[in-house]
Design a protein that fits this description.
Blueprint: H1 4-7, E1 19-25, E2 34-44, E3 49-58, E4 68-70, E5 73-75, E6 85-88, E7 97-104, E8 118-119, E9 137-145, E10 153-154, E11 158-162, E12 169-171, E13 177-178, E14 183-187, E15 195-199, E16 204-205, E17 208-209, E18 213-219, E19 223-232, E20 238-248, E21 256-264, E22 271-278, E23 285-291, E24 297-304, E25 313-319, E26 325-334, E27 340-342, E28 346-350, E29 358-361, E30 368-373, E31 381-387, E32 392-398, E33 404-408, E34 415-423, E35 427-435
Parallel strand pairs: 5-11, 13-20
Antiparallel strand pairs: 1-2, 2-3, 4-6, 7-8, 7-9, 9-10, 9-11, 12-14, 14-18, 15-17, 15-19, 16-18, 19-20, 21-22, 22-25, 23-24, 23-26, 26-27, 26-28, 29-30, 30-33, 31-32, 31-34, 34-35
């Protein structure tokens, strides 16, 4: 500094009283290093003036310690870190302090000659605000004294670490997979408190998951599937990556029923169904069906298959409300593509002490009355519909082996009718039927 407090002040006295002292600098006062002449002028109250000159030489008295700046920080990409602040000012030397800030993104140790350390234009104060960062960046503050060329004072290096969250798979399909084939996905660890969000796309089961390891993922439609993984690490930073899984409609062995049995539970009016299958596919179903004639089946219940292609699977179902008489059972298998396979049909006849050889229902009847054979006939039966006057309206033959016959009474007027059933040569049953509209 060329301030008189540093370079010295001229003193003057006079008998006329108070003296005013001032100065002016010659050329070179703003060139350092260098020198210039300072002319001092003293003026008393009487107007008398005298002068003297001072030769001032400017030299560099530089910084010896660059001080300390704060602070290291870890942030996510796109965040703005805290301002880098001066904790301890540079020291040593004399004169005004001048600052230079440098930055580096490759982590090299500080070397003024290393071109990786780039000057930050406009950064010439003791503090610096880095602004938004997208990669790990290193900062250093250099200082010098006025009149010095070299920034001799170097602070500590500040590291602003930008956490790049790049999801990686450590487990997943290494090639094409088949429809319904179950595979596992596992993400590389992003920290103890990290969170993981998976989206497996259309046709996937499950469609999404939120754990580092996900087992049992499969697709029910072929094609290239986009699996998206989003991770939030311990620092709260997010990263997303996508992976392609090729799903193929692989040919495989056809589904089949290995065995199917149906039987009445001992001393109970219930039926147990047992069946074993092979070559099931994922997302397939069973329909347990029952019929009174072996032709018109109705679903009792639907259940999901185990769905493992290479495993034999066994199932059991209890029909706790079978009807008295003939109960025909079969199992309907439907895969995820709608292909249907039926089991063989099994007959279970439920009888009690009061169960007749033949059953007639419904009664009253609107349209058709049904004759059901409960105990097998030795010979064909004859069915005759007569009115209250004994007139015959219909005659039918029920052959042996046939268990159901429908008799149409739709066009008959309301009233009482009788159904004569002659069977096994000498036996006869008469049923009273009420026809209603």
């Amino acid at each position: 500094s060329t301030d008189p407090s540093v370079t010295g002040m001229a003193i003057a006295s006079d008998d006329c009283g108070e003296v005013t002292v001032g100065y002016s600098d010659g050329p070179g006062a703003d060139i350092c290093p260098g020198g210039f002449v300072r002319t001092w002028t003293a003026t008393d109250k009487c107007g008398n003036v005298t002068t003297c000159t001072q030769m001032i030489t400017l030299i560099c008295d530089n910084v010896t310690d660059g001080g300390l700046i704060l602070q290291n920080e870890t942030i996510c990409p796109g965040e703005d870190p805290f301002e880098l602040v001066s904790a301890i000012a540079p020291s040593g030397g004399s004169g005004e302090l001048e600052y230079l800030w440098l930055r580096n993104t490759n982590g090299n140790p500080f070397d003024p000659a290393d071109p990786a350390w780039q000057e930050i234009l406009g950064a010439n104060g003791p503090n610096y605000d880095p602004g938004v960062l997208y990669e790990t960046t290193y900062f250093i503050r250099c200082a010098r004294r006025a009149c010095c060329d070299e920034y001799s004072g170097e602070s500590n290096v500040i590291t602003i670490e930008v956490t790049q969250v790049t999801p990686e798979l450590i487990q997943g399909p290494s090639g094409p997979i088949c429809l319904g084939e179950e595979v596992a996905f596992e993400a590389a660890s992003a920290g103890v408190f990290a969170s993981y969000d998976w989206a497996f796309g259309g046709g996937a089961y499950p469609a999404a998951a939120s754990s580092q390891l996900v087992n049992g993922v499969s697709w029910d439609t072929p094609g290239d599937k986009v699996v998206t993984l989003s991770i939030r690490d311990n620092n709260g930073c997010m990263g997303t990556a996508s992976f392609i899984v090729e799903v193929e409609n692989c040919p495989g062995p056809d589904f089949e029923f290995i065995e199917f049995e149906a039987a009445q539970v001992d001393e109970e009016l219930s039926v147990v169904l047992d069946w074993t299958t092979e070559h099931e596919t994922y997302l397939s179903n069973f329909d347990i069906e029952r019929s009174i004639d072996g032709e018109d089946f109705k679903t009792l219940e639907q259940m999901r298959t185990v769905g493992i292609m290479d495993l034999r699977s066994s199932y059991q179902y209890f029909d706790t409300e079978p009807r008295i008489g003939n109960n025909y059972y079969r199992i309907k298998y439907t895969d995820r593509h709608g292909k249907v396979v039926y089991s063989e049909t099994r007959l279970v006849v439920i009888v009690t002490e009061d169960t007749p050889d033949l059953n007639v229902f419904p009664n009253p009847v609107v349209n058709k009355v049904t004759v059901e054979v409960i105990r097998p006939l030795e010979k064909e039966a004859t069915l005759i519909v007569v009115d209250v006057l004994g007139r015959q309206h219909q005659v039918h033959t029920l052959p042996t082996g046939k268990v159901i016959m429908d008799i149409d009474l739709t066009d008959y007027p309301q009233g009482t009718y009788f159904l004569w059933i002659k069977y096994d040569e000498y036996r006869m049953i008469v049923h009273k039927i009420v026809k209603v509209d």
